[in-house]
Amino acid sequence: MVSFTINDRPVSVDLNPQTPLLWAIRDHVGLTGTKYGCGAGLCGACTVHVDGVAVRACQTQISEMAGKKVVTIEGLSPDSSHPLQKAWITEEVPQCGYCQSGQIMQAAALLAKNPKPSRAEIIQHMDGNICRCGTYHRIIAAIERAARGA
């Protein structure tokens, strides 16, 4: 049994210690905003925060979560009012939308550490989060907007 906090809610799961955090989140906790993309930690669709750090949930074992604090896209804000979520809508970022929760969680980790990143810092930090629709220019614009507080 592994006990941790997810979106400010204590949970315990009884899983094989090598089970990816992604499957604990989706199949055992019931939060489906975190997506399965590649299963190899290469695309970023499964990005969540563990103790404030963006991690790939598909590559993080549940055994590593004991006593940790996990935040998923559902926990970023209770009513989708996070500045990034608002900027995502204003900049019309999503097309298919599949990668967006991972993109937003990766961007939120950046803004938590660096509230006013340069365009180059945004690009560097977001490298590795793949958008098959190619909305990278809108993703960058949304992060810039959120950083400006607009």
Describe the structure.
This protein is of the alpha+beta class. It is built from six helices and five strands; from the N terminus they run E-E-H-E-E-E-H-H-H-H-H. It has a five-stranded mixed β-sheet, sandwiched between helices. Strand 3 and strand 4 form a beta hairpin. Helix 3 packs across helix 6. The longest helix has 14 residues. The protein is globular, with a radius of gyration of 15 Å. The termini are far apart. The mean pLDDT is 96.
Structural class: alpha+beta
Mean pLDDT: 96
Lateral strand order in the biggest sheet = 2-1-5-3-4
Low-confidence stretches: none
* N/C terminus separation: 44 Å
What gross morphology would you assign?
globular
Please count the helical segments: 6
**Helical proportion?**
25-40%
Number of strands: 5
Describe the biggest sheet? 5 strands, mixed
| Element order: H for helix, E for strand | EEHEEEHHHHH
Radius of gyration, CA atoms, in whole angstroms: 15 Å
Per DSSP, what share of the residues sits in E-state strands of 2 or more residues?
A: 5-15%
